[in-house]
Design brief:
Number of strands: 10
Strand order of the largest sheet: 4-3-7-8-9-10
Number of helices: 5
Radius of gyration: 16 Å
Helix content: 25-40%
Largest sheet: 6 strands, mixed
Shape: globular
Order of helices and strands: HEEHEHEEEEHEHEE
Structural class: alpha/beta
């Protein structure tokens, strides 16, 4: 996706420790035109995949997931990072955040993630694959089926994508970062 790659090279900022900051157009301030193009590309890449729900983790995955859900006319479920006192029939799992360097619990209601659902996971980043593994755990707990995972940006040097693909998961990443060595962004 050329527009996304160009934007990463132009506006992305690199920080030590393998961190790529894209908060000015993806995950703090959002570019809705770019986000629509991202949604269209995910729909194209998963066109032959059976899906009846889109799932993500709050908060940065919500915008691309909503775009995909809107275009496919499907509901979007997001795993919450704080357990609401009003949530019933809760499924929970723990996820380690590479960026925040902490573990947090995520939860969804069994009312919205059900046996037989065919679920597409959409998120902003794929690094070590921890959020993806957490979603996979929730999907399995629910008796649903994960039919694919789409990421705006994959950091190939952190190998989460390699693990997911080796597990037989259909993974699509719109921009793959080869390295951030010396804060130089190398993208494929």
């Amino acid at each position: 996706m050329k527009a996304l790659k160009d934007r990463i090279l132009r506006d992305g900022r690199c920080f030590p420790g393998g961190i790529l900051k894209v908060d000015n157009f993806i995950n703090h301030q959002m570019d809705p035109i770019l986000m629509k193009s991202i949604g269209v590309e995910f729909v194209r890449r998963f066109a032959s995949t059976p899906i009846n729900k889109v799932i993500t983790v709050e908060a940065s995955g919500i915008a691309p997931a909503i775009m995909v859900g809107y275009l496919l006319e499907l509901p979007v479920v997001f795993a919450k990072k704080k357990k609401p006192s009003t949530m019933e029939n809760m499924l929970t799992t723990s996820v380690f955040s590479f960026t925040k360097q902490r573990t947090y619990d995520v939860c969804v209601s069994r009312d919205f993630l059900c046996p037989g659902d065919k679920v597409l996971f959409i998120d902003d980043f794929l690094a070590n694959g921890n959020a993806a593994k957490g979603i996979l755990d929730l999907v399995q707990q629910a008796g649903a089926e994960l039919t694919g995972m789409g990421f705006i940006i994959e950091k190939a040097f952190q190998h989460g994508g390699d693990e997911l693909r080796a597990a037989g998961i259909h993974v699509e990443s719109l921009a793959i970062i080869e390295s951030l060595d010396n804060c130089e962004i190398k993208i494929r």
